[in-house]
## 1
Amino acid sequence: MTARWTLDAQLFHDNVAHVIQNQPVMAVMKNNAYHYGLDFAVNAFLKQGITTFSTTVLREAVRIRKLAPEAVIFLMNPSTEFHIIREQRIHMTLPSPEFYHQHQSDLAGINVHLEYENFLHRSGFRTFDDMIPVIQTNRELPKSEQMSIVGIWTHFGYADEFDGDEYSDEKQAWLTGLEKIKTYHDFEFIHAQNSASFVRDGLFTGHSHARLGIILYGSRPYSSLPESLTRQSLTISANVIQVRQLEKGQSAGYSFAFTAEHSTRLAVVDLGYGDGILRTRSKHECLINGRRYPIKALMMSHMFVEVDSNVAAGDEVILYSNDIRIDEYTFKGVGANSEQLSALNHHSLLKEIKL
Ligand SMILES: Cc1ncc(COP(=O)(O)O)c(C=O)c1O
């Protein structure tokens, strides 16, 4: 018995088709495709008709190129490894006028997408007006020295917020600036929307792609959405290795990790924080034989779960599946969807892809 990371490939494929509904999508592949695995995810997305990808790391962009020789691959972080970018035909963000002026000659022949900073203040041109001199300077260069300004993009920081006006304001700033800059330059690629924005608003008019991550990987971006919006194909499971009886007042685990307030059946499960289960997640339940039972303590390779007489050694214990979803615990404050996914230890969990 060992703790497992199991992916239902058919469910993943079906879900991608269900989510995108034939809309043009740039799939976000960063952090090894949200830890679903770059090779698996690229192939799955290609099968569902997605041919545009983005990531933050050049190494991943190069791997995507191997898997998808004809795809459009967009690097969301700037890189100065210009020869690789050119050779691999990778599109790259242009994050500031400073970057342009510093690397003007190296950028010749490279496809860039101008980045608008917006409310996230992580990267990008501060204003659309700052883009104009760059467009003009580039235009005045001999053709062979020009970069190709093929795209423009932004990223919303508040699309999953409903309390204030921030999303509406950042959206307005983008759409207004975009209309203006389009009078100076034609962009083939216009993309701004993450999962939350896409679900809230549908694809904005005139945009070439929605740039989706988490919804493709089976989690809802915010809590008021129905589970049917996207389905989780990943299961994290382990087994009950023993059931122990504790009497009132007896403790189990390190430093009184759990003390029985009454006579308690305690299942010992072979899964722990060493496998990447967040401590915040262990404040909640797991699923055994179709019923939820409370986790009582989390150790490196084990968990204690309070069970009843329906649970026995050998039973399967599910921490995450489509019946006990990552997004449910996101909304209970355990951590972001991507945080729970990223924490999982791919070196200790047995990885299985069910075809
Ligand atoms: C720049 C950028 N675009 C798109 C996404 C996709 O966001 P989501 O996973 O919420 O769809 C991310 C993810 O963090 C991102 O950093």
## 2
Amino acid sequence: MSDDVILSLHVNGEPQRRLIPAARTLLDFLREDLALTGSKHGCDVGDCGACTVRVDGLPRLACITLAAEMEGASVQTIEGIGPAEAPVVAAFDKHVASQCGYCTPGIVLCLAHLLSEQPSPSDDAIRDALGSNICRCTGYTKILAAAREVARGER
Ligand code: FES
Ligand code: FES
């Protein structure tokens, strides 16, 4: 008996249809089947945010999501960012908010979601939005500075 399933979805705007093991995580599907390695393995248990992608616009932890659950969904990874996310990326560059970069894809996608819902979020709202994203390098100060700059349109 096969445990494979056919999955049809959009990833970064492109239609995808694949036969995958039913137990495959979304993170492994993206990294291994589609070679989209921007989403990272961190804790693999939903605690660090390194694997964050957007599913139908909402942040989602790909390490604890089954790919098979994504039937019909629209998934965005860091490879799929565009003009809407450009201000966040530019502010990260300016403030050197990415050091090793391991947390950066997840944080950028979380911030992009926040800013799509609240164009001018407060510092508390920014902290809440990034509450599940662990960064071992920056101390968060530079990330907050970058997010604040985008939020307040200071660029
Ligand atoms: S790798 Fe998914 S939350 Fe840590
Ligand atoms: S920049 Fe290294 S973990 Fe955040």
